[in-house]
Every structure is written in structure tokens, then in C-alpha cells.
Amino acid sequence: MSGILDKEQTIAGPGFNRWIVPPAALAIHLCIGMAYGFSVFWLPLSKALGIKDAIKCGPDVGFFGQLFTTSCDWQISTLGWMYTLFFVLLGSSAAIWGGWLERVGPRKAGVVSALCWCGGMLFSALGVYMHQFWMMIVGSGIIGGIGLGLGYISPVSTLIKWFPDRRGMATGMAIMGFGGGAMIGSPLAADLMKYFATPTDVGVMQTFIVMALVYFVFMMAGAFGYRVPETGWKPEGWTPPPAQVNNAMITQKHVHVSKVWGIPQFWLIWMVLTMNVSAGIGVIGMASPMLQEMFGGSLIGVAKKFGELDKAQLTAIAGVAAGFAALISLFNIAGRFFWATLSDKLGRKLTYVVFFVLGGLMYFSIPSSAAAGNIALFVGAVCVILSMYGGGFATVPAYLADIFGTQMVGAIHGRLLTAWATAGIIGPVVVNYMREYQLGLGIPREQVYNQTMYILVGMLVIGLICNLLVKPLDNKWFMTDAELAEEKRLAHEKMAASEVGVSTGGADVVNPAVVVFAWLAVGIPLAWGVYRTMQSVAKFFA
User: Does 200 lie in the same domain as 128?
Assistant: First the structure.
């Protein structure tokens, strides 16, 4: 089995069709992207024992008591720690094992990711059955979090090497899948829990088991679909443009991952990603209550503020807000592909300038559009913001490849993802605590987000400055020819004998039907997820 997973076994020969690699990456990202949708389990799990109503723990049972208790239900705030662990472990595991991934190749990393993510879900299912939250923390939170990190970065370096002519588009396709994972997984989980629920069981355990098994099949198929090009391979008829022609930011040399911590440009891009994600994640986490509190009864044609609505009216606007949340999730996903693809034309640095300038204008407009009661402008601004939030994730791998070279871009991307973990703390803290502070001052609910939006504009200004300071690297940071040759040896690379489509009689020509089937295998679930999401979006427009 180890021989099948070795990187040497994944090196593509003449005539290989590179278009089968993106659906392989999507197969993995669509599965691990369910991390975004895990909140669908919180409410059922909070009533795992009581079924209809939660059996509340006594005041003597704190967080650590809930890890081991079997006599009362878990609080939703306690369950939320699994979500936190997902992204802490994603960033840290990607940073720790990124170098290992570059040397063993994406197939082995993809298999380990599948074992961790799906095995973690099965261990969590056992935790649900035994009502032991510590098992869910270890299973999905820690083991699954490691699988997230390895699965997230596994295709980055490979896709960039297969698509040197379209780096942004290639990584945008894969990372779009991570954003779309919850769009498929959340309604699927809801349907499964409804199917498995009984008068004595909320159906979460069975749902975990079924989803883990389905995900394992898709992730293993994706891992075995990964292939890496020979060293020096390039698309047929494509010639790398000379460095002096509008692409001074794109290097043909390579930086070793061990050096990036000391390179100023790495930390500038780290800040660029941190500021972009901090602002976006703060909004995505509070988009639904923000819409409800800012516009109140006007969402359902009632001339009342949020605090004046009765229970039935609050339920009605909550339904509208759920549709709004679904709408912005579509923009989050579409933005990953749109902006990353556009960056191939604009260049990565200019694309981030657009993110920060246009994004700053959008954030700045939110208080005034809310004060004017203009729902359309508010919704439009938030949708653009969320498209650029997703676009920031999808564009940054290509940005790193431009600046640091492609040899170890997956490992460098892994280290950069520590910015995501940081932003995951900064963004929600700023938005949530500023909201509570403003409410404490007696400011009306429809105005409590105003100062927060201006703070987020300030974050984008910091990101813009850092982005403008990014310059091409000094030659001292790049590997020498001898160092590069050694790294290629450790990565088990071999020199290219051909270009794509120029077969020399090898047996690596992929049947076009296989490529079509691979795209259908990921495209049909994605289309179903879009359909289910559009059903929710319809509630907003209704």
C-alpha cells in the first residue's frame, strides 16, 4: 500500500490530461468544507439526552464537567469549541506538516487527510453514543482538525504546477470547494438527522457515521486522482513570460520554507491575509443579526424597530435573515473562483488593492445605507464584501507562488494559514465585543454596528499599506542551484520529457470520459447544494 502512495507513483507521464486534477482537489475540499457547516449539529446535540428539551446541567457542572458528564446535555457554547478547534488545528497542522507534504506528495497527504477527517467523525459518533464530549473534541476537533489542514493545502502546490499559466484560476477552483462544502453538507446533515431521528434519538450519531463513510469514498477518490507533473513540465505552446514584461512580481526562482519566517514580504502578506479575513469573518459571523437589528420590521413591511417587534414578527424576520445568510454564502463561494481567476489578468497585488479599496468603501457605506433604510444597498455591500473575503483565500496561494516560487509553495501556504487562525479570533472579537459595548452605552440596536464598520475600514487600510509594501525578493532568499537540486531529490522529482498533449507513446493518456465523469462526480453534489441554498435565498427575496 505504501508503494501506491509514494510520490514517485503519482508523477504523470506524457499525454496526461491536467483537467482531471481540479476535480480531485474539489472532491477533498467539498468534504472538509463541512467544517463551516458543523453548527447544524449544535441544536440537536444540545438536546441529545432530553430529545425535546435539553436536560440542563447544574451550576456545579462547568466546561470541564461537561467534557465527561453523562447526566445532562451540553450547552451550545460548549459545543462551539469544536468549531474553534477546527480552524486552530487547520492553521497549525498546515504550518507544521506543510514541508512533509511537499516531499511525500499530495496523494499520501490526501489519504492521511481522509483518515483523520473521516476517522475523527466516526470517533465523534462514538462520543455521541456514549455522551462523552471529550471524545468529540479529540475526534472531530483535534484529529479532524489535522485532517482539515492537510486536506486544505494538499492540492495547492500541485495545481499551481499543473496550471502555471492560470495559477489563480486553478487554486480558486479548489478553494471554492472548501467554501461550498457546508452548502452541500449542512442540508445533507439536516436531511439525515430528520431521517434517523426517533422519539429517543436525535439522529446525530447515525448522521456522523453515514457522512464519514460518504466523505471517505470521495476523499480517497480525490487523493488517488492527484498526479504531479514532471519537473520542468509546461502546457503545450505556453512560454513563461520574461520577468521584465509586466510581471516583475513573478519569480522563476524558489525559496525554501525554512527561511520564510525571516522574510519581510512573508509577514507583509501574512498581515494582508489577516486584515482581509478579520474584516470579512467578523461580518460573516454577525450578518444575520446585523440585518435584523439594523432594519427590524421593514424586512417584513412593518414600520417597527427591532425592539418593538412581537414574537411572531421576530420569527418572520429570522426567516428572512436565514435567506440572507444563504445568499452571502453563495457570494463567498463564487468570489473564490471569480477573484482568483481575475487575478491572473490583474496580478495578485492589484487584486488585493481592489479588495481593500472597494471593500473599505463597502464597509463605510453600511451605516449610511442602514440609516436610510436602503436594504438593497446594504445587501449589495455585504455580498461584495463576502465575495472578496472568499477571494482573498483563493488568491493568496498564487500570490505566494509569484513571490516565493512554486517548489515549496504548499508548505509556505501552510505557514501563512496561521494568519487565518489569528483572524478567526480578531474579527469576531472586534464585532461581538464592540456590539456589546455599544449596547451597554444605550445606543439603539440599529446603530450598534456603525463604529464597528469604521474599525473594520481601519483594518483594511492597514492591509492596503502592507500590500503596497510587498516587493520582489532579494536574491539572497532564494535557494542556490545546489540547494534546489537537493530539494528536488528529496521530493522525488524527475525531469519532464514532454509537454501536455504531446504523447511519446506512454500509457498515461486519460480517457476523456474519465475526465467528464470526475467533473460530474463533484459538479452534481455542488449543483444540488446550490439548489438547496437557492431555496433558502428565495425566502429573502420573497
Answer: yes
Burial class (CB in 10 A: 0-12, 13-18, 19+), 317: buried
Distance CA 86, CA 147 (A): 9
pLDDT digits (tens, 9 = 90+) for 358-414: 999 999 999 999 888 899 999 999 999 999 999 999 999 999 999 999 999 999 999
Query: d(Cα 27, Cα 88) in Å, to the nearest integer?
Result: 23
Query: Cα separation of 464 and 456, whole Å?
Result: 12
Q: Which of 269, 229, 231, 235 is nearest to 249 (CA)?
A: 269
Q: How many CB atoms lie within 10 A of CB 59?
A: 6
Check: CB of residue 120 under 8 Å from CB of residue 149.
no
- Domain that residue 440 falls in: 262-478
User: Residue 322 and residue 314: Cα distance in Å, rounded?
Assistant: 12
- Contact status, residue 172 vs residue 401, Cβ threshold 8 Å: no
The pTM score is 0.88
DSSP 49: T
- Number of compact structural domains in the chain: 2
Our CA angle for 294, 383, 379, nearest 5°, is: 35
Residue 138 DSSP code: I
224 and 319 both lie in a single domain: no
Count the residues in the chain.
542
Residue 325 CA to residue 364 CA, distance in Å, equals 21
CB atoms closer than 10 angstroms to residue 372? 10
Nearest CA to 446 out of 325, 336, 290, 321 is that of 290
